[in-house]
Amino acid sequence: MTPRRLAVKALMHQEQAGYANLVLDAELKKCTPPLESRDAAFASRIFYTVLEYQPLLDFLLGKFSKKPVAKLDAPVRAILRAGLAQARFMNVPLPAAVNESVKLTKALGKTSASGMVNAILRKAAVLSVQESDFTDPLERLQTYYCLSKTVAQLLYSQYGEETFALAAAFRNRPKSAVRVNTLRTTDEALTKELQDEGCCVENGPWKHALLVDFQGSPVTGAAFARGEYHVQGLASQFAALCVEAKPGQKVADFCAAPGGKSLTLAQEMHDTGTLVSGEAVSARVNLLEKAFQRCGITCAKAVHNDATVWQKSWGTFDRVLCDVPCSGLGVIAKKPDIRYKDLDGMENLCVIQQKILQNGADSLAENGRLVYSTCTINQQENQNQIEAFLRRNPQFQVVAPALSLPGMEHGAFGTLFLPHKTGTDGFFVAILEKLST
Fold first, then answer.
1. Calpha distance 121→406 (Å, rounded)
2. What are phi and psi of 416, to 5 degrees?
3. β 274-279/300-304 pair status
4. Neighbours of 430 (CB within 10 A)
């Protein structure tokens, strides 16, 4: 199995539905013998580059295809997209991208289409296309910036002309950030260990945050296996740190998996007190338990729980984090399939968010602190939710964060991270405290 063939097979399966990462992982696991790590990485790059640029690729291919791209045979369509992605966006020399695509066309039993593949790729790869070619803003967002019509409309309605800078930032993955496990090491010691593993490391914007240029996967090194850090984006770290969990406190993380925020909370608590980490998906509770074990956390308990249902038996907490399920529109750079969401069910999603936030408030002790966070930039799920919550709960107020990051925007209802301004994931955090009576 060649990496190009595996990528094409994964693209064909992706069209039939499924999360991109799961589709690709399934194809990699089926490969016998397994691909070398370098080839697996190349296959992954092809797959994700096609997903990231698919509307623009189809626009270019459609200029030279006699049939609409959607009407082509699935293998031919996937081969054309993969070949064009390599030539235009992956710095693969055009002759190599074309020749390998033609070989693959024949290998997949589509020999009669090999001439067409050759001709279309050679023309589409050199066709000039500029952002200014798309004068209609929504067409530009959909075709040039590769967003679904629904996502384009939503973002443009909320951000106007700023949406183009935002959409451009979705093509730049944030730097890999890790959180130092202060229970097992120090910032300085971990920096040296990662450098010894061949990584380039720089200090983050606050203590115990490091920005790391990993040579491979960030979860395969020796320091990770020893539980000396966990991978956590800066915006996510910010949300957890805004909880201001203290040693000996009783803390709840209502939507905890895969566990990054719970690990940061436990470390801030010096692994004392009690941390209840709830997760609605039972299969993910095990992920939490493994993360706690790897990092030596004993104060945390992973619990299978639906956060939309108030658990009176849990009593009250000094601190509550509600990192609620959301549309994910802030992490498009990491998860390209989110680009093409239809956003169906948004009203139901907002109801779920409201229930979780209210349950967090109802579970808070006097003088406690509640943090609401999302990885979306949709105002309906962010500022609007907090505004509605404050109307229902006038005893609460929004508190300004102690931490700051260049580019973040703090408003009346919380703090917003926009990727083109902060260089992080898109994120929203609101710190809520009860007014003194």
1. 43
2. -115, 135
3. parallel
4. 29
Q: Tell me phi and psi for residue 372, to 5 degrees.
A: -110, 130
* Token pair belonging to 104: 């693959």
The CA distance from 292 to 288, in Å, is 6
Name the residue with tokens 């200029």: 63
Q: Is the pTM of this model over 0.90?
A: yes
Q: What is the pLDDT of residues 207-221, one digit of tens each?
A: 999 999 987 789 888
Measured CA distances, 148 to 178, 193, 230, 339, 363 (Å): 32, 43, 33, 6, 38
- Is pLDDT of 157 > 80? yes
CA 102 distance to own-chain centroid: 34
Three-state DSSP class for residue 184 = coil
Specify the length of the chain in residues.
437
Contact 323, 425 (CB under 8 A): no
Closest to 271 measured CA to CA, from 365, 184, 368, 366: 184
Bridge-based pairing state of the strands 427-434 and 414-417: antiparallel
> 230 — phi, psi (to 5°)?
-130, 155
